[in-house]
Amino acid sequence: MATPQTLDRTLTALADPTRRAILQRLSSGEARVTEIAQPFSMSLNAVSKHILVLERAKLVRRRKVGRDHFLSYRPEPLTTAAEWIVSTRSFWASRLDALEELLREEDATKP
Amino acid sequence: MATPQTLDRTLTALADPTRRAILQRLSSGEARVTEIAQPFSMSLNAVSKHILVLERAKLVRRRKVGRDHFLSYRPEPLTTAAEWIVSTRSFWASRLDALEELLREEDATKP
DNA sequence: AATATATTCAACCATTTGGTTGAATGTACA
DNA sequence: TGTACATTCAACCAAATGGTTGAATATATT
Predict the structure, then answer these.
(1) CB distance B14–A17 less than 8 Å?
(2) Rounded Cα–Cα distance for residues A45 and A18 (Å)
(3) Residue B95 in contact with residue A75, Cβ under 8 Å?
């Protein structure tokens, strides 16, 4: 439904390099909190907080197995964000072709 | 080139409802600062600051004519943002079709 | 039972953010 | 020239953000 709140949460979550890195890590598969935190030069707690932000934005889902929390990437909200971009493009028409082409290219190289 | 900094500025700029509203306003054509500020229930100064954020993100361009500053929408950075989304999708493949279709629909209804 | 591991909760702190008001700057106009 | 208008600059403020450390909770292992 793309409520402004949803869009807010999505874009706010994406507007941080640490959180984008976490998403990129998760885009290649599930991981536990500690595993996600490992490459970062900040405390585990800090990463835990970032994960909460991503979870609130529904970009990440948590599956608890015993003491381990497995996080996975949920890309659905990105579609909402894309919808906003499209709805705002207007005289952006010329750029649209480029985006469509880009999407198609990616589709070809990553089957 | 999609430096992380560029992406940061773009997404940070988009992560505020006032700024998204300003962009939407501008997507239907140029406007002066006062015109842009008029519908908002905040001070002109506050809106002026938001415009600066959008300008820093290169989502808005300023053309000065006498005492008037005309702002226009520059959608290029959105392409960078879209690139990031695409590069992170990975097992998002199924959603991609939906996005492509969406783009095509929009293209049909808004010639 | 005792200990180690995985994670969050809570309190705290510095910086950023989004807003305010009042003054300054530059341009248009009578 | 004087005055109105368009905009930014500067100082300030409250709340949010992104980080820290230390304690709490829950599960696993010995």
Answers:
(1) no
(2) 13
(3) yes
Q: Which of residues 23-52 of B touch A (CB under 8 A)?
A: 23-24, 27-28
Return d(Cα A6, Cα A23) in angstroms, integer.
Answer: 18
- In angstroms, rounded to a whole number, what is the distance separating the alpha carbons of residues A56 and A58? 5
Residue among A15, A82, A96 whose CB faces B85 most closely: A82
**Among the listed residues A46, A45, A59, the one whose alpha carbon sits nearest the alpha carbon of residue A15:** A59
Listed residue (A17, A101, A55) closest to B82, CA to CA: A101
Sheet containing strand B31-32, edge to edge, reads B31-32, B68-73, B60-65
Q: What are the angstrom distances between the C-alpha of B94 and each of A102, B81, B89, B100?
A: 16, 20, 10, 11
B17-68: per-residue pLDDT in tens?
A: 999 999 999 998 999 999 999 999 999 999 999 999 999 999 999 999 999 9
**What are the structural domains of chain A?**
1-111 (1.10.10.10)
